[in-house]
Write a structure and sequence with these properties.
CATH superfamily of the largest domain: Medium-chain alcohol dehydrogenases, catalytic domain
Distance between the termini: 12 Å
Number of domains: 2
Radius of gyration: 20 Å
Number of helices: 9
Helix content: 25-40%
Mean pLDDT: 97
Bound molecules: NADPH dihydro-nicotinamide-adenine-dinucleotide phosphate
């Protein structure tokens, strides 16, 4: 069975040489475990942080060991009650063809309800991140002007549309290409969008949100966060979700205008999706409903073949994906 291992810790952007495709024996499940054959796996920005040596909110990946992460697969052997051969489960043993999973950490999914990739995207961790970040962390209220960075990605595409569907006054998005900008406005119903390569982000945001910003959903950090500080209205709220503009730079860019938070009485709140599990049912009902009736649209960028997972991961970090970046096995 093939698996992808971390061969070296990337410096700056990862390269294909940082990964290694290895043939390993198919593992044997013990009591309470499942052997799963993976069908689709996720590549996510947070994995870049785990490739560094330092401890963060998740332990670093080990050198020479298979990577892991969200995946959906079919149970081949079950040694746990409640799961049978042929069941489809969501679990955390991605980056490999066959994985052993603790049944307590596996969640059954219904392939009849949504395509498998949706459980890793719009109806999974990224969708939940968008929902919790916007509604609970940033305390979005009807009538707010909302700015979402990384808006054409897995989290951003949901955050902007939840804001629209929950009655935002205006939803503004930023992304990295003209095609993504068109997609945001024409397909996802953003009121305005800009390509952040087109000038200073502060100027582009000020032009796209002339009445100022009440809520900022921050996927990017750096210059984007700085721009939001300048555009914020009094009592603005930011959900600090990620800072991908700094993930591959040894010398991070920080916001220079943090001082504005004082006079504007801003709330800037970091969060991790795992602390918002209590919203799961509401999220599944509301976002699942919007997906089913077509009012919330989503994209996926699918790369075929486990051997191409490093390429898909590196491409995602460079903005080659629209919507959720996935790898089918
Ligand atoms: P995406 O699908 O958005 O993919 C990453 C995107 O980041 C790329 O497509 C690219 O789009 C953009 N990007 C890359 N470099 C830069 C840059 N220098 N400046 C601006 N944009 C850049 O990933 P996700 O939706 O999965 O994740 C989005 C964010 O949410 C990340 O910061 C991630 O770490 C965070 N996150 C946080 C969670 C939490 O619990 N707090 C949970 C899940 C995700 P473009 O073409 O627009 O540049």
């Amino acid at each position: 069975a093939r698996e992808i291992r971390l061969a070296s810790r990337p410096v700056g952007y990862p390269t294909p040489e940082d990964f290694e495709l290895v043939e390993a024996p198919v593992p044997t499940p013990g009591d309470g475990q499942l052997l799963v054959r993976n069908l689709v796996m996720s590549v996510d920005p947070y994995m870049r942080g785990r490739m560094n040596a330092g401890e963060s909110y998740v332990p670093p990946f080990a050198l020479g060991a298979a990577l892991d992460g969200g995946a959906v697969g079919e149970v081949v052997v079950s040694r746990a009650p409640g799961f049978a051969e042929g069941d489809v489960v969501l679990h955390d043993a991605g980056w490999r063809e066959y994985g052993v999973v603790d049944a307590s950490a596996a969640v059954g999914v219904d392939p009849g309800v949504a395509p498998l990739g949706a459980y890793l995207g719009v109806l999974g961790m990224p969708g939940m991140t968008a929902y919790a970040g916007l509604l609970e962390v940033a305390e979005f209220r009807e009538g707010d002007v909302v700015f979402v960075s990384g808006a054409a990605g897995a989290v951003g595409q949901v955050a902007g549309q939840v804001a629209r569907l929950r009655g935002a006054k205006r939803v503004v998005g930023s992304a990295g290409s003209p095609a993504k900008v068109r997609h945001l406005v024409e397909e996802l119903g953003f009121d305005a969008a800009f390509d952040y390569h087109d000038g200073p982000v502060a100027d582009l945001l000020a032009a796209a949100a002339p009445e100022g910003v009440d809520v900022y959903f921050d996927n990017v950090g750096g210059e984007h966060l700085d721009a939001a500080l300048l555009s914020f209205n009094r009592h603005g709220r930011a959900a600090l979700c990620g800072s991908i503009s700094n993930y591959n730079t040894p010398d991070p860019v920080g916001p220079r205008h943090l001082g504005l938070a004082v006079g504007k009485r801003l709330v800037l709140r970091g969060f991790l999706v795992r602390d918002h599990e209590h919203l799961r049912e509401q999220f599944t009902r509301e976002v699942g409903g919007w997906v089913a009736d077509g009012s919330l649209r989503y994209r996926e960028t699918v790369t075929e073949g486990l051997e191409r997972a490093p390429e898909a991961f590196i491409g995602m970090l460079r903005g080659e994906n629209v919507g959720k970046a996935l790898v089918t096995l």
